[in-house]
Diguanylate cyclase (Paenibacillus oralis), 487 residues
Amino acid sequence: MRNSQRSLLLTASKKVVEMSKDAKLIHQKNVWMLVLLGCFFAAGLFMNILINRNAMAVQPLLGIVLLLILAGFVWNGRWPAATMLLAIFLLFIYLFFIIWNERSFTSYIFLGLLPLLSLFYQNYVAVALGGVLYVSSGVYFFYKLHDTMFAERTNLSDTAYIAVYGLLILAFSLITTMITRKMSYRAEHSEGRLKAILESVSVGIWTYDFGEMKLTVSDGFEQLTGYPASLFEQSPERITDMIHPEDQHMFFESQQEMILGRTSSVKECRILRPDGEVRWVQSRGTPHFNALGHLVRLEGIIIEVTDRKQLEETIHYLAYHDELTGLPNRTKFGERFAECVNKGDYPLALLFLDLNNFKDVNDTYGHEAGDHLLKVIAVKLSSLIREDDMVCRMGGDEFVILLTHLDTDGVLKVVERILANLSEGCEYRGVRIGISASVGVSFSPDGASSLEEMLRQADATMYDAKRGTSGDYRFYGDRRNETERVR
């Protein structure tokens, strides 16, 4: 028996799941209509027993039969729209029999339940059916039972007024349904658009109520953080656990701004997802106060801004680095030079390196080979200097290297090591390409020389080296205006 009941319930639930959205809504309203009509019948039965000591006035047997018929259709759930119309029609039958048997004005008044309850569905067909049944039955009873139910001062010519009144009720019901449906459609459309927007930008909404000491978060938190929303509601402290350790101070600063500063707060920080992924989020919070100025709750949203932060980092990187080789560019090099001067990282040495016959590589093997060569040289130069030093691509086939805390001998050892390494060449598509370079060196023992001056000196000595043997280097004398060959 239990298995059969369980199978029946499963069957009924499956039928409900298979319904469309509108059909499900009508089915739910049918369930509530059954409850309302049952309560109406029970209340009428109770009132008649209490006042008239007679239950027959409400036709108990008829009412039970009609309710059972409606309950069967509602439980079946296959035809929600037809069940909706059946509910209105069964109510009409019940009221018709009560009025016909009682023939009292009090019973006649209950005809108004037809258009009133049909409005519950907000369905044009249901409203029209309820209105038509109300108008037609109202006119019929007024005409047939005029002498029995109505006062002597009324006459049959008043039937027209009854009809007009009923039609006004019908028109009002239809207009109300139209307005309500339009408002509902707009609300659903706006909700759908908002939901689509929130889902597309990964937004989580949160509220903290100080009265209940309770945190409430939206389902967007799970999509954004990877943790279930219920986790944060049960343990609000888990929010700080998912924030990157280096950014946790921002969370506490935000709380102070909203609670103590009584102002809105906007912070950007990193969060750690369960899978180890790091995401950037922007948190916007606002405090809310009651009429007495007491803080009652905090509300806000968190928005994923990972793509924007990555774009900003890319833009910042490209502003300070060469796009082809990834080496620092002239702007970054200038900042590093100024930093060394301010920190007193003396002596300073600037190496200006220019590749020999680089144009021949492009002409012989193509620009792809030239680009490959520049990338290889960038890696070589970076590996041959210390972490505190810097190599920069000035453009074309020119590189500049900044060395700190080295005397003349130390600088020359670096230069010779660079030239020796470059002389090994590089391989491109099975072909070994030879590499040679000319280097000009400018030396500043006390950092008194500016970057422009040292670049000019190193550039001049580099061109002087080019006029000599390939793979040569020259040193610009710090105390005189002529170059000297250093070997």
Q: What stands out?
A: The two ends are 106 Å apart (CA to CA). The domain at 202-310 is CATH 3.30.450.20 (Beta-Lactamase).
